[in-house]
Write a structure and sequence with these properties.
The structure holds 2 protein chains of 2 kinds. By secondary structure, chain A is an all-alpha fold. Helix content of chain A is 75%, strand content 0%. Chain A is built from 13 helices and no strands. In chain B, helix 7 packs across helix 19, helix 13 packs parallel to helix 15 and helix 14 crosses helix 15. Classes of the chains: A mainly alpha, B alpha/beta.
């Protein structure tokens, strides 16, 4: 177990390095630069700015400088939000994105697993078909449809919930979290049902049934845990995506999360900001996939022995 | 009154009636064995009255005064909970993977309403079924246990709530020969000790002989013959029973007439195979060490051993489908390189046949594609028409008609599928077949037919055979010589008849005693 964790963390370092370098050079391949505004600056100012941020040096040297600063925990200054460092921007956006994403995962798990369980118990019947249809719809509807729709009904027409920005208490969280959770919960419901359907056919379920246990107990005690393995493998990357901020939802509901900085940064060629967010995303994805691997071992002990 | 009585049982599944007019009784403390080929309806007969199959049972089923025939699902579940214990065929999958042995045993102990048992009591239950280090076992997950250990845990769980009837559906078919005998002995002891009635399902007459009091022989969903076990075996009345008894290989049957072997074809010199340990553990796992075997032209050599003895590793190394880490393989005196370096001509010489015939055929392909595949690789010079002719010829050699060419594997029975697999192996005119448990997944009647077919190929085509099996009695019908394996080493080798008569090594003795 500990060996697995250390090994995975060791392989994470080169992975991260490759991702950072690739995004570094890819971004420089894109035309334009951070100081190409609508009104072009005069060449002297351009050159002065370039020099101030070290953009006039050879590319490989810039890459080396960036990485050596990163190792010390310095993400560098933002080229567009000139009064902030990238670390400060991330520190501002990350908590909002983490709250949104974390709550969305919990909600999606709650809805998805419950729905999947009900569908599996009533396999082939009307309940099953209805749930699976709803799950398909939920998965298919993009957040840029559900988000504004929710805002329109609950916010503008019924006036129940705030439509935009961070308000008092937790009411402002409800709509963005629901909008984020819906497609994920649909996918989880489908995976749970499929997982249970294959587990319930297995021999050990017949053994449990032979003991005269109730169907509910068989389902919860003997079936559900192994059936969650596909859910866990889906949840690793999905959680990383949700936690690091859903660009669309943050934009729709006017929330200053990480996702917004990412898009803005990319459009403005704010190299350090984009690189900082990418590094963070990559680290989180690696971390969540490691979590998923650890959860496998708990869900199905056979996987612990590799 | 009998403990369990079935009269005129019929089972219906989706408009079919796979079981009809079956009657049997189980007395307390006695064993009734239900014998039949796969698909004969024996498992359905045992499990359907208890609601453990998708089928619907009708007829009279009386268990300890409870009329199962007229009971609803709740009553039947209650009967399962209190009165019966079940042991199934596949110990590998019959235990819940994410619950510890202790948790499952505790659940089984409490299933009839008993209080939570102390840990010591659970430990004793495991001891009773012959497990060692029981305290440690309680905290282990099932996958850490071997097949035999898991089957013992299954038995401990099945009798943990002191049921009156134990239903064992092929409890030993997935285990190797020496374990089979141990598990059967354990069931005998428990039966005597607790006055337990045992309903035993098996396809293997030999394994129940000496254990069953009553014998019920089933074929195609009906009872062929039933009566006291000794009478049925010594004096079978029905033709089917007689054929079944004749098909079951026995060590006391007269030895076969085998063709005279020729020159040395295959020789291995101190062959060894090591694997990296699974997971993150260090070190190597030695699956095979210092194996020296010789196979002559037209000769059959049996490689016999329990599961994990390294016999399949040896076979795979020779067939060129498994790794070799030490030693060498020689063909006609010339070294045979490792698999990737073998030329097409070398690959043609040795062809494998595997245990599970259905799983070793691609389900998407037609028989013709399956049988001609070796030719497409080994003989690129042949045209499609020539390949088809050879395929027809190969099928006729395994006694299948031409119309099998267009069939798909799903439409074949186990025996037919194994014939197709043999046709695929012989179509390239190999000189040696490596048969890895090629008959052990088959019913005795079908298995005996396949053995007969192999014997014919041995005589007519001069094929050499390497027969990997755990069943000495079956191997004796074909093989000149035998090599007994244990823990990756050949522990005894020599003439088959001589070794069966006078086994030296304890492993050989165990295998002989078990068959």
């Amino acid at each position: 177990m500990l060996a697995l964790i250390t090994r995975r963390l060791m392989t994470a370092i080169p992975t991260l390095l490759v991702i950072i370098l690739a995004s570094f050079f890819l971004m420089r391949l894109a035309p334009g630069g951070p100081f190409d505004g609508e009104r072009p600056l005069d060449p002297a100012t351009q050159a002065a700015l370039q020099q101030a941020y070290g953009l006039d040096r050879p590319l490989w040297e810039q890459a080396w400088l960036y990485i050596s600063r990163l190792v010390q925990g310095d993400f560098g200054p933002s080229l567009v939000y000139r009064d902030f460092t990238v670390s400060e921007l991330i520190a501002q956006g990350l908590p909002i994105s983490l709250t949104l994403g974390g709550l969305a995962i919990l909600l999606a798990l709650l809805i998805g697993v419950t729905a999947g369980l009900f569908a599996a118990v009533r396999a082939g019947k009307a309940t099953d078909k209805t749930i699976m249809m709803l799950a398909t719809v939920a998965t298919a509807l993009p957040t840029f449809v559900t988000g504004p729709a929710l805002a329109l009904f609950l916010g503008l027409w019924l006036g129940l919930l705030p439509v935009s920005g961070i308000g008092e208490g937790g009411a402002w969280l409800i709509m963005p979290v629901v909008a984020l959770a819906l497609p994920v919960s649909g996918a989880i419901a489908k995976l749970t049902r499929a997982g249970l359907a294959s587990v319930l056919k297995q021999d050990h379920i017949r053994s449990a049934r032979a003991r005269g246990l109730s169907e509910t107990k068989i389902m919860l005690k003997h079936g559900l845990r192994t059936a969650m393995v596909p859910v866990a493998s889906y949840l690793g990357p999905a959680a990383a995506g949700l936690l690091t901020g859903a660009v669309v939802v943050e934009t729709v509901f006017g929330l200053p999360g990480l996702g917004r900085y990412f898009v803005q940064g990319a459009l403005n060629r704010d190299y350090p900001l984009v690189l900082g967010v990418v590094t963070l995303y990559a680290a989180l994805i690696i971390l969540f996939n490691l979590f998923a691997d650890l959860i496998y071992g708990w869900l199905d002990p056979r996987m612990r022995d590799g | 009154m009998s403990l369990y009585t079935i009269r005129n049982l019929a089972v219906d599944i989706a408009g079919n009636r796979p079981v009809e007019d079956v009657s049997l009784t189980v007395e307390a403390g006695q064993c009734t064995a239900l014998i039949g080929a796969s698909g004969s309806g024996k498992s359905l007969t045992c499990l359907t009255p208890f609601g453990l199959t998708p089928g619907v049972a009708s007829g009279s089923m009386l268990l300890d005064g409870i009329d199962l025939g007229n009971a609803d699902a709740v009553r039947i579940r209650d009967a399962r909970r209190r009165l019966t214990g079940f042991v199934f065929q596949q110990p590998l999958t019959a235990l819940t993977p994410h619950l510890t042995v202790g948790a499952q045993l505790q659940e089984a102990t409490m299933q009839a309403g008993a209080a939570r048992p102390p840990r010591r009591e659970l430990s004793q239950k495991l001891e009773r079924v012959g497990l060692a280090r029981t305290d440690e076992r309680l905290d282990q997950f099932p996958h850490r246990l071997s097949g035999g250990e898991r089957q013992r845990v299954m038995i401990a769980a099945a009798i943990a709530h002191s049921p009156k009837l134990l239903i064992a559906d092929e409890p030993t078919s997935a285990l190797d020969a020496s374990l089979r005998a141990e598990i059967m002995d354990l069931l005998d002891e428990l039966r005597a000790e607790q006055g337990l009635g045992l309903l035993l399902v098996s396809h293997d007459l030999a394994s129940v002989e000496g254990h069953a009091d009553q014998l019920v022989v089933m074929d195609k969903g009906r009872v062929v013959e039933s009566g006291p076990a000794s009478d049925v075996i010594t004096d079978p009345k029905e033709d089917y029973t007689r054929r079944l008894i004749a098909a079951t290989p026995r060590l006391d049957e007269p030895g076969p007439k085998l063709p005279q072997p020729g020159e040395i074809l295959l020789e291995t010199n101190l062959l060894g195979v090591e694997f990296a340990r699974p997971g993150w553990r260090r070190g190597k796992l030695r699956a095979l060490a210092d194996a020296n075997i010789v196979v002559r032209q037209g000769e059959a050599l049996a490689i016999v051993g329990g599961s994990g003895s390294g016999k399949s590793t040896l076979g795979r190394a020779i067939a060129g489908i498994g790794p070799v880490t030490q030693g060498g393989i020689f063909w006609d005196g010339l070294p045979l390189p490792e698999r990737r370096k073998r030329s097409l001509a070398m690959r043609r010489l040795i062809q494998p046949v595997f245990q599970d015939p259905v799983a070793s055929l691609d389900p998407q392909w037609r028989v013709e594609d399956i049988v001609t595949e070796p030719l497409r690789n080994l003989r690129p010079d042949l045209t499609k028409v020539e390949r088809e002719e050879l395929a027809q010829q190969a099928l006729s050699e395994v006694d299948l008609a031409d119309d099998f060419l267009i069939r798909i594997p799903a439409s074949l029975s186990g025996g037919q599928a194994q014939r197709v697999a043999i046709a695929r192996a012989i179509i390239g005119a190999p000189e040696l077949l490596v048969l890895d448990e090629a008959t052990s997944a088959l019913d005795p009647l079908v298995g005996a037919e396949i053995l007969k077919l192999l014997g014919r190929l041995q005589v007519e085509n001069g094929l050499s055979l390497l027969l990997i099996t755990h069943d000495i009695a079956a191997a004796r019908r074909l093989c000149h010589r035998i090599a007994v394996m244990e823990e990756g080493r050949i522990v005894e080798t020599g003439d088959m008849q001589a070794i069966v008569k006078d086994p030296r090594h304890p492993a050989t003795r165990r295998l002989i005693a078990a068959s």
